[in-house]
């Protein structure tokens, strides 16, 4: 049985989340409306998973999470309103035990997140929390002045801190364009890109339709849209669309569109649920590209990397700390 504490100042949201989770016989829930109740329950009941709202009156969800991690480190799922504050709180909270986050629906129909939330709770309950603690980025790597390579990165749950680690080790003179497809809801990808841009030497921005892939610039695929790389004249250009996909932004769609560049591609698959990216990685591999996957020991969730390994498409299976070294060797 998975024990979950739902922390939210709204009784409607607490009751709705509780009702959804308890439709699954493997989950039992507890509720807390504020900091005091949350800390008391965590101390006494020691839940397996925390589900909490980033925006709380008085002491924020971020501060509550920080305090809980000092008492009993616990994997967490952060619920976040679609607001600038909520998005920033969510992005900043990954280093405090957050496995993933889910937006709070704007409508009263909370059931639209039911299936996803149940899956996330079960995944969080299985996570080795030590894997969420990403080491400080190494000294900036040395890179060649020029390279024809294009770097693609795909990730899902557990991916944001891994991406942050990789990008923070790259110098501003990095000679290749970078495209990042991280499973995230609309608007959250902008906050994610803004955070990366603040802490990394390279420039990072959310991709827009028509953006040209340029060396030393990382583009983050926007949530809610799928991204393709197309050729225009002598440039590789971003094309955004809303074509149907199981999850958006979709790693497979982006990777397949880039596969035409053949041996110029270095594709990196990091922590995440499911197998999005496996088809795209296979196509890149068949066109002569290089596939690097994060190993099980350092992946928060080994689903995506393992799906590539099972297909026999992985050229290198590496701990997170060694991936930037391998990129440098391949440039």
In short:
The protein is an alpha/beta fold.
Could you characterize the architecture of this molecule?
The protein contains eleven helices and 14 strands. It is of the alpha/beta class and 331 residues long. It has a seven-stranded parallel sheet with strand order 8-9-7-6-12-13-14, sandwiched between helices. Strands 2-1-3-4-5 form a five-stranded parallel sheet, with helices on both faces. Helix 10 (303-310) links the parallel strand 13 and strand 14. The longest helix is centred in the middle third of the chain and has 12 residues, at 114-125. The protein is elongated and about 60 Å long.
Task: Write the SSE topology.
Layout: E1 2-7, H1 11-21, E2 27-32, H2 35-45, E3 49-53, H3 61-71, E4 76-80, H4 84-92, E5 98-103, H5 114-125, E6 150-155, H6 159-167, E7 178-182, H7 188-199, E8 203-206, E9 217-220, E10 226-232, E11 235-241, H8 251-258, E12 265-269, H9 278-286, E13 290-294, H10 303-310, E14 316-318, H11 320-330
Parallel strand pairs: 1-2, 1-3, 3-4, 4-5, 6-7, 6-12, 7-9, 8-9, 12-13, 13-14
Antiparallel strand pairs: 10-11
Helix pairs in contact: 2-3, 4-7, 8-9, 9-10
Strand order of the largest sheet: 8-9-7-6-12-13-14
Number of strands: 14
Radius of gyration: 20 Å
Helix count, DSSP H or I runs of 4 or more residues: 11
Name of the top-level CATH class of the largest domain: Alpha Beta
Rough shape?
elongated
The CATH topology of the largest domain is what? Rossmann fold
Element pattern in H and E: EHEHEHEHEHEHEHEEEEHEHEHEH
Average pLDDT number: 90
Architecture per CATH nomenclature, i.e. the level-2 architecture of the largest domain: 3-Layer(aba) Sandwich
Instruction: Count structural domains.
Output: 2
Strand content: 15-25%
Report the structural category: alpha/beta
Instruction: Catalogue the unreliable spans.
Output: none
Query: How far apart are the first and last residues' alpha carbons, in Å?
Result: 48 Å
Helix content: 25-40%
What about the largest sheet?
A: 7 strands, parallel
């Amino acid at each position: 049985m998975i024990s979950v504490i739902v922390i939210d100042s709204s009784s409607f949201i607490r009751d709705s989340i509780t009702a959804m989770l308890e439709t699954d016989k493997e989950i039992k829930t507890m509720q807390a409306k504020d900091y005091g109740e949350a800390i008391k329950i965590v101390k006494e009941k020691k839940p397996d998973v925390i589900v909490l709202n980033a925006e709380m009156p008085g002491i924020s969800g971020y501060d509550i999470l920080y305090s809980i991690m000092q008492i009993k480190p616990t994997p967490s799922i952060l619920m976040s309103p679609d607001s600038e504050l909520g998005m920033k709180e969510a992005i900043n909270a990954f280093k405090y035990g957050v496995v993933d986050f889910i937006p709070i629906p704007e409508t009263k129909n909370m059931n639209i997140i039911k299936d996803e939330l149940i899956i996330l709770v079960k995944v969080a309950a299985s996570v080795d929390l030590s894997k969420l603690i990403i080491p400080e980025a190494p000294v900036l790597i040395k890179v060649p002045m020029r390279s024809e390579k294009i770097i693609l990165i795909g990730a899902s749950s557990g991916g944001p801190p891994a991406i942050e680690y990789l990008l923070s080790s790259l110098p501003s003179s990095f000679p290749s364009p970078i495209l990042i497809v991280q499973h995230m809801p609309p608007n959250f990808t902008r906050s994610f890109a803004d955070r990366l841009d603040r802490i990394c030497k390279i420039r990072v921005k959310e991709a827009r339709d028509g953006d040209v892939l340029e060396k030393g610039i990382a583009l983050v695929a926007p949530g809610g849209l799928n991204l393709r790389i197309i050729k225009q004249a002598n440039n590789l250009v971003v094309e955004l669309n809303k074509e149907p996909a199981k999850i958006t932004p979709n790693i497979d769609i982006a990777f397949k569109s880039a596969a035409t560049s053949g041996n110029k591609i270095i594709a990196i698959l990091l922590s995440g649920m499911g197998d999005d990216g496996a088809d795209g990685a296979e196509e890149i591999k068949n066109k002569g590209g290089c596939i690097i996957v994060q190993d099980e020991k350092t992946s928060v969730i080994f689903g995506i990397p393992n799906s590539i390994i099972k297909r026999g498409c992985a050229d290198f299976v590496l701990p997170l700390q060694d991936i930037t070294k391998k990129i440098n060797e391949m440039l």
